[in-house]
Design a protein that fits this description.
heterodimer, A: six-stranded mixed sheet, B: about 120 residues, mainly beta, seven-stranded mixed sheet, four-stranded antiparallel sheet, 11 strands, globular
Chain lengths: ~120, ~120
């Protein structure tokens, strides 16, 4: 069974602080994909990153970085020098290749509040 | 280029009624998926349609149905509405290409339709 756990319900930081959002996943597939999406108050899910199960390289994109560790089934997301515009709900998601179709399984999300 | 569009933006229905939600994919995208997001939760997969056929279905009752039209737009229908159907319904579109071929095409989400059942 597929499952994504985001244990942090809400995180509050002050602008310019670094913050890490945790994501732990469960899957029996050997081929799978992991994602992070951002959901601002407008409601639209914004794609941030995709990682496949064979690529454990960490990735950095501007102030965003992702740490994928298969050994601990984790795919954590760090925002460096947070800004007020980063305030949103962030979702981690998993998609298994074995299903034959693109079903995203989401975690319950982490609400990030960045105050000035 | 226009993104995924959904209509209506908001909808209020009463228990027992039926509702139809609409989605237009990004131009060139042939696959449409529907998700339900209850307040405070992550989106839950309902359906994926590709080339007008259902390719996958989540754990939702038969009251939920969908179809895809020749222009790849899609409708989600929910019959006999329950209070628990109140949610944000998200549509996502993607290019053709499945996971089996080792190629994953991103799903791009629309702004959603917020359904309130009273």
């Amino acid at each position: 069974a597929q499952k994504v756990t985001q244990a942090q319900t809400e995180i509050s930081v002050v602008e310019k602080e670094d913050v890490t959002l945790d994501c732990v996943y469960e899957t029996r597939d050997t081929t799978y994909y992991l994602f992070w999406y951002k959901q601002p108050p407008s409601g639209e899910l914004v794609f941030l990153i995709r990682r496949n199960s064979f690529d454990e390289q960490n990735e950095i994109s501007g102030r965003y970085s992702w740490n994928f560790q298969k050994s601990t089934s984790s795919f954590n997301f760090t925002i460096t020098a947070s800004q007020v515009v980063d305030s949103a709900v962030y979702f981690c998601a998993l998609s298994e290749a074995g299903t034959g179709f693109q079903k995203l399984v989401f975690g319950t999300g982490t609400r990030l509040l960045v105050s000035p | 280029d226009a993104g995924v569009t959904q209509s209506p933006t908001h909808l209020i229905k009463t228990r027992g009624q039926q509702v139809t939600l609409r989605c237009s994919p990004i131009s060139g995208h042939k696959s449409v998926s529907w998700y339900q997001q209850v307040l405070g939760q992550g989106p839950q997969f309902i359906f994926q349609y590709y080339e007008k056929e259902e390719r996958g279905r989540g754990n939702f009752p038969d009251r939920f149905s969908a179809r895809q039209f020749p222009n790849y737009s899609s409708e989600l229908n929910v019959n006999a509405l329950l209070l628990g159907d109140s949610a944000l319904y998200l549509c996502a579109s993607s290019q053709p290409g499945g996971l089996a071929g080792g190629k994953y095409n991103e799903q791009f989400f629309g702004p959603g339709t917020r359904l309130t059942v009273l």
